[in-house]
Amino acid sequence: MRRRELMLLLGGALAVSRTPRAQQKAMPVIGYLGLGGWSHNPSNPFVAALRQGLAETGYVAGQNVAIEYRWAEGHYDRLPALAADLVGRKVDLIVAPVLSSALAAKSAISIIPIVFVSDYPVEHGLVASLARPGGNLTGVNVFAAELLSKRVELISELVPQARVIALLVNPNTRFAENYIRNAQEAARAKGVQLRVLKAGTESEIDAAFATLIQLQVGALLIRGDAFYNAPASSSWRWHPAMPSRRSMSGPSSPQQAA
Hints:
Elements: H1 3-18, E1 29-34, H2 45-56, E2 66-71, H3 79-88, E3 93-96, H4 99-108, E4 114-118, E5 137-141, H5 144-158, E6 164-169, H6 176-190, E7 193-198, H7 202-215, E8 219-222, E9 241-243
Parallel strand pairs: 1-2, 1-3, 3-4, 4-5, 6-7, 6-8, 8-9
């Protein structure tokens, strides 16, 4: 994500939202609808980037802007109620750092500006088009599916001895098959085998890491998903891994969700 572009979107949305209600509150309020559960962890990269980016544009949390955080603790089904709660708090705009929170926010309100981070925003129904989003949503398209094929190429070059690469993907993710198809095409082009491991529950994640050892996989690609944002499996250390976000990296550090 290009943080500066996102901050420009936030600043513009915040300015627009304040116009009709400038006399109602002492300072604007941003609602942050997160899928993870690290509200008190200062190292959360998304929260840190948001606060730093706002400061760069003249908005300092606690001084001239307030941020209301809502966290779903990894439970997708909690997002609609949390979005409705932010709407009830009359926030000036909503930041939706993942697709699921963007969809929940869109369903909750049609007049409060929503700034999202997502892939396939048109296909998911967030905006009418990339050129003309329309409605009350705007944001950043991360091109995750397209970048996934590039990650296959990179990891095969970084770990040339790995003739078998695994892709860990949550089958419950929308367009999961698109990600798999792109990765398979890239693997064929590089002449490596791709093993697809699908995991949408905790037990399936444990089974997937056990399978990595059995298949003698040389490298692992992880299709980013908030469900995977939990402490890494002990098997992680044995495989060169390329997650979709830096915040998911490392065999010992707690992973973080947006």
